[in-house]
Amino acid sequence: MAPWYSFIFPSHKNKNGQYMDWINTFRDSKIAINLAEQLNNMQPRPARIMEVCGTHTVSIAHNGIREFMPPGIVLTSGPGCPVCVTDTSEVDLFIAAAKRKDTIITTFGDLIKVPGSSSTLKNEKTNGADIRIVYSPLDAVEIARQNSNKEIVFLGIGFETTTPTVAAAIMQAEKTGVNNFSVISAHKLMPPALEALVADDEVKIDGLLCPGHVSIIIGANAYEPLVEKYNIPCVISGFEAVDILHGIIMLVEQIENSRAEIEISYDRAVYQHENSTALHIMYQVFTPAVSIWRGLGEIPSSGLVIKEEYKKYDAEHKLGLKKIKSNKSSGCQCGEVLKGIITPKQCKLFDRACQPENPIGPCMVSSEGACAAFFRYGR
Questions:
Q1: What mean pLDDT do residues 98-117 have?
Q2: Using a CB cutoff of 8 Å and minimum separation of 24, what contacts does 65-70 make?
Q3: Is the pTM of this model over 0.90?
């Protein structure tokens, strides 16, 4: 029987009879071969490793890495997709803003099809709402400058990676005197969510593959309290297949040696210290507050609200929008997927009622969602 790492040779197919996309890419790579052999020779004890970042989830699914783990090593997805963790009550708030007359909604594309309690932004656009896809919050400020007779609302979601750019847009609006621009802040902070996740008795995790993009901003030191308090190994990884293999090996070594440290595999981009410039801009405009995460519930100091001195750019305050908690159930199990309790395939709606063309939950909507990744690469 060929060893599990035989996927690096062109004769190997996965269990669906398909060649791995990255076979030819890494066939001659001594690094990939050495990493695969190293992991295979470890024969580690059983362990559950959670990849936190949605980009990791997509890369793992795309490259077939999950299928080639040695026996006992289980990879599970976590709450690292910004669209996926946005609560229904927040989506309803976005939709309420879209229904207002004389308002233009600006948003990133993944939000368009995320279902709220009774509608989606896509449906509202079909019904006549002015909803525009932008690639930067600064694009929304420019739209506001060009449409002074309308209120331009930017739908702010995302982690520490993108929030500084939203803060910069608010500062730019103030600097240039653009007063018809505002933001609904559904931004979230990663470390408090990871602590809530690890502290949850329902969640069983032996190691965390920490998000590379977020870590570029907050630095490796941000995870030290988590490691010290919960004695859980953490490794920050990049997003290429080799990066992820290397990160998994580092985690397995920590688990095998009963160590709990924060290590950096993605050292070409991540440092121990934070990006102080980005965080300074972020905290100049935003301040931490309680936030609702899909699947995780309310987590103290895990969200960001606009500070009092920038309140005129807070759309909730400016437009009198009220967040209402939704109790409607669609049968979607995205919350359990985000906590790693079940895999997407274990959701009763997956590949049945819930597909990319007709998504029931955000994990199928987002390009970084676990359900979308499993549907595309793992069916």
A1: 94
A2: 65/241, 65/244, 65/245, 66/378, 67/14, 67/15, 68/4, 68/5, 68/7, 68/36, 69/4, 69/248, 70/4, 70/39, 70/40, 70/42, 70/43, 70/44
A3: no
